[in-house]
Specification:
The protein is of the alpha/beta class. It has ten helices and nine strands. The protein has a seven-stranded mixed sheet with strand order 1-9-8-2-5-3-4. A two-stranded antiparallel ribbon has the order 6-7.
């Protein structure tokens, strides 16, 4: 039996379970999130050692008591992220517009009216899956709406997340196809809006630039900057704030409209600085489970 067929058999009941839970109102789902927190934090202890180490290195001035409180806040929010993401299987456009509000979205409208293509930069903060609802805030039917993603090894979950992320009209570009696809869209004459989640760790062969991020020397992704320069894309940042549980505000901020007029890595550094400010407002709402600092600068003398 093929692996993919076996996954369909094994995970189909899970999808039904997700669909049934998505029918529940979010206030009920948050009760389930509170219940999920207990086994995830105390029993499974999902990546707790890594999370605490990341926090301790990022906030060297905080006491252990403060760090433990921050750690618990993170896991509570992580459980909220899980149920909120499941809710994407059954949520109305109207409710999503209430819960995920975009401010200064007129910047996007203005650029699209000028036939400019846009790179939107964001991070794993708040609920990044809900950012895919941004098409609800502007109306340009001839625009390509894309997001870059790294395909999952588990094909069943990969298809599930592709379904969730296309809920509001966007489609995904596999990371390896990014440059080719974006330049093809550019040559078509139609504008595009492409989202990049760019706070991840680059692979060793793609480490070309380091910066100071959360008190640590950090290698950063630079591919989006190279693409912005090559295709003359406007670069914007999605600054997410937590209003209250289940409610987010995302402010669109300009990084640059003229990428080729800036020094090398300036776009990357501006994004990293904005991302850090976003995290410092509510540190518990960032995804601390990533191995963000697994590479050391001294091992990459040429970058």
């Amino acid at each position: 039996m093929k692996k993919e067929t076996l996954q369909n058999i094994v995970y189909s009941p899970l999808y039904l379970w997700f669909k049934l839970h998505a029918l529940l109102p979010l206030r009920v789902l948050y009760l389930l999130a509170d219940l999920l927190y207990v086994p995830l934090y105390y029993v499974v202890r999902y990546r707790r050692k890594l999370v605490f180490e990341n926090m301790r290195n990022s906030f060297p001035d905080k006491s252990e008591k403060e760090l433990r409180r921050l750690e618990k806040q993170f896991y509570h929010h992580f459980c909220d992220y899980i149920v909120e993401t499941i809710k994407l299987l059954h949520i109305s456009d109207r409710e999503m517009r209430r819960r995920m509000v975009f401010e200064q979205a007129e910047i996007v409208d203005r650029l699209l009216a000028q036939n400019r293509s846009i790179i939107l930069l964001l991070g794993h903060f708040g609920n990044w899956e809900w950012i895919t609802s941004i098409p609800l805030w502007f109306h340009h039917p001839d625009t390509f709406l894309k997001q870059i993603y790294r395909p999952l090894d588990n094909k069943w979950f990969d298809r599930l997340f592709l379904k969730l992320r296309s809920r509001f009209g966007t489609s995904c570009i596999a990371k390896k196809d990014t440059l080719r696809t974006m330049l093809e869209m550019k040559r078509s004459g139609r504008p595009s809006v492409t989202g990049f989640i760019s706070d991840q760790t680059p692979s060793p062969t793609n480490i070309h630039h380091w910066t100071r991020f959360l008190s640590q020397d950090t290698p950063v992704l630079t591919g989006f900057e190279k693409i912005a320069r090559k295709g003359d894309f406007a670069v914007l940042y999605v600054d997410v704030e937590i209003v209250r549980r289940g409610y987010y505000k995302a402010t669109i901020r300009e990084i640059t409209l003229t990428p080729n007029e800036l020094p090398e890595f300036e776009i990357t550094d501006r994004y990293t600085a904005l991302m850090e400010k976003t995290i410092l407002r509510n540190p518990w709402a960032w995804l601390w489970t990533h191995k963000r600092w697994k590479y050391k600068h001294e091992n990459f003398p040429e970058s």
